[in-house]
Input
Amino acid sequence: MRKKITVVGAGNVGASCAQRLAERGYADVVLVDIVPSVPQGKALDIQEAAPVVGIDSLVTGVNSYEASADSDVVVITAGVPRKPGMSRDDLVTTNQNIVASITRDVLKHSPDCIIVAVTNPLDAMAHVILKESGFPRCRVVGMSGILDTARFRTFIALEFGVSVEDVQALVLGGHGDQMVPLPRIASVGGIPLPQLLPQETIDRLVQRAVKGGGEIVELLNTSAYYAPSAAAVQMVDAIALDKKRILPAAAYLEGEYGIEGVFLGVPVKLGAGGVEQIMQVELSPDEQEALKRSAAAVRELVEVTRKG
Ligand code: APR
Output
């Protein structure tokens, strides 16, 4: 039997996720949105590509949650995106109400699912979903680190003119301006980045990665969706296919890295159980300090959601 994946939000990120998932062929996909006929239209369009792509997945677009019943994984992308000049944090109050009500609907129909949060501000929205659902922390995970890391890897690969496949990197922390790239352990073909590039070049690449989302917002007048959907779907693959991949993602920390009670980007083992393990990276004192600052920024936003 094929898996069932529900994507909530049929906008730029959600529709791209649905397309990427459907084209993998291992799951039926349900696309949910509040806007009448849009999820239906996008789902039908994706479905009509099936004979060309060569997959048998069913893609259903709906405005309610019955068809999503018993989903294995639910990806929540619904909410408003950024406009130029906005930070991810500016979205908090609007998006918290949206994700809280969606979580209640998801829960009614798929009480055993694993939720992948994508809506921004990501770490605070994952927190809202965790508290609203009452799920154990392993079943709510946020998409952030794969995207931030992919941006960093892209810029390193472009700088060297080498395959992205040979570039490894890791970005920790919240999915915002306080994210914590770790160039110290980035590598090209196994060679540590600090042995290959002067510090000022590394700093430039780090800055571009940190501001990578904003760079797209300035160009598009809305936020990115091709890379975010690719990242979210890599997480769904790991969970639905029980791949047990080690990927950076937002997990709820309960003492790991000396941090308690917030979602933060860390390397996790993702499999059928969701976040099956949180991996610990040994950090330098500066990196640990930066991670603590990032956690404090997430905590402030979580406080805003409590007042909202
Ligand atoms: N239930 C279902 N869908 C909703 C709801 C709701 N309560 N509220 C809003 N939506 C839908 C909108 O109708 C819209 O189709 O969410 C969709 C959002 O799509 P876009 O506006 O295109 O935004 P997108 O670029 O997909 O970004 C969505 O992901 O990366 C983050 O920062 C981004 O928070 C934003 C989210």
About this structure: The chain has a mean pLDDT of 96. The longest strand covers residues 260-271. The pocket of adenosine-5-diphosphoribose is lined by residues 8-14, 32-35, 77-79, 81-82, 91, 95, 98, 101-102, 118-120, 222-223, 225, 228 (CB under 6 Å).
